[in-house]
Amino acid sequence: MMNEPVVKKKRNIPKILLILVLCITFSFSFFYLAKTLYTKTTQKTGAVQLKSLWDKHDYQNVFNLSQLILEKDPLKPVALVYQGYAAFYLAISQTDSLKAQNLIEISINSLRLAHERASSNVVPQVDYMLGKAYYHKNIICAYSYYADLSIKFLNLAIAKHYRATDIYEYLGLSYAALEMTSQSIVAFTEALQYNDSDVLLMAIAEQYYANGQNSSAKQYLYRIKKTSTDDTLVLKCSNVLGLIYLDDGNYEGAINEFNSILTQDPNYADAHYGLGLVYEKQGNIIKARSEWRAALFSQVNHPGALKKMEQ
């Protein structure tokens, strides 16, 4: 009986390799997908947490969480926006000027970065917040001036049809800081559509007075004196009225306004200074210098009284 020929089984190596390659590919795909889903979920969770904290006005924790997110992704737009907003509100509530200045710097830096990366529907609001941040930086930094940047970004926000109840008030204040009185009056008048507070009316009156429009200024000042319950504001109002009466040559009216202030607050430096100006106009230099000394007693660095006493 003849032996059957031995048939060698072919090793199916290509098929094994194919299965191995498919397994590796699947594993990598799985891990990549899992990582992507995890990252997206984490980012979404972070954004949801930020919004939740923001809605509660918990600005400190908004700031802290956005900082954690930015440590992993320094250019994450949503975190930059929230950090900028939170830093701003923390800054304006600070009593320590150095801390306030540092927070305003963080706010501006974050918002400037966000401005380049945020979606188009968010940019107008970022412009608005940058305008407010630069205005407050202008107040905090005694030797630097940022009102022009405040005006720039507030006008950008307005041009993009962004509206907020205080946007024109901030714009008016920024123009006033640069002594651009006509533009300030226009902005403040626009602001009256959103807020007709006595503080805003006083700001308009001061700008009219600074612009030499005494008649217009008096209309607002009379209204404030008649209706305001803010004693400090009423005293300020009387002081500006006294200066207007002085300009108009109504010395009796000016004296009455300044004396009415001193009846309520004997240490009101501006009222003493104003009385001194009236007496100077009347040729009574002795009484004028006496009032200027009283102004300096109440406020040692009163600029007007210092200048008069040096003459």
Describe the overall structure.
By secondary structure, the chain is an all-alpha fold. 77% of the residues lie in helices and 0% in strands. The chain contains 15 helices and no strands. The chain has helices at residues 13-55, 59-72, 77-92, 97-117, 123-140, 147-159, 167-177, 181-191, 198-210, 214-227, 231-248, 251-264, 269-281, 285-298, 303-310. Helix 1 runs antiparallel to helix 2 (59-72) and helix 13 (269-281) runs antiparallel to helix 14. The longest helix has 43 residues, at 13-55. The protein starts with 12 loop residues before the first helix and ends with a helix. Residues 1-10 and 29-43 have low confidence and may be disordered.
* Proportion of residues in extended strands: under 5%
The average pLDDT score comes to 87
Radius of gyration: 33 Å
Gap between N and C termini:
142 Å
Write the element-wise H/E pattern from the N-terminal end onward.
Answer: HHHHHHHHHHHHHHH
Unreliable residue stretches:
1-10, 29-43
Q: What structural class do you assign from the helix and strand content?
A: mainly alpha
Counted beta strands: 0
Overall geometry: elongated
Main sheet attributes: strand count, strand direction, barrel closure: none
Amount of helix: over 70%
By DSSP (H or I, 4+ residues per run), the number of helices equals 15
Summary?
The longest helix is centred in the N-terminal third of the chain and has 43 residues, at 13-55. 77% of the residues lie in helices and 0% in strands. It has 311 residues and is mostly helical.
